[in-house]
Amino acid sequence: MSKRELIEPNPGDKRYVRRDDKGHFTEEVDVGKSLAADQRRHSTHDAGKGQGDKGDRQKH
Questions:
Q1: pTM summary value
Q2: β-pairing, 5-10 with 25-30?
Q3: What is residue 41's three-state secondary structure?
Q4: Which of 30, 31, 53, 55 could staple 47 via S-S, CB 3.0–4.6 A?
Q5: pLDDT tens for each residue of 26-43
Q6: How far is the CA of 24 from the CAs of 8, 39, 50, in angstroms?
Q7: Cα–Cα distance between 32 and 1 in angstroms, integer?
Q8: According to DSSP H, which parts of the chain are helical?
Q9: Which long-range CB contacts under 8 A does 6-15 form with residues at least 24 apart?
Q10: What span, in angstroms and rounded, lies between the C-alpha atoms of 8 and 14?
């Protein structure tokens, strides 16, 4: 699994993205939404470096 990368395609529009082996985006989330979601949850499991959004994620 790739690390999250912070990009800013337009001034003021920061996003966390993940890329596949070919460099294409596989997942994209706005920074504000990501930080707000992090504050709403209390994690019990540690996630690796660069994998902060994968902490307590349920696998379906």
A1: 0.52
A2: unpaired
A3: coil
A4: 55
A5: 888 787 777 677 677 766
A6: 16, 29, 18
A7: 23
A8: 31-40
A9: 6/31
A10: 4
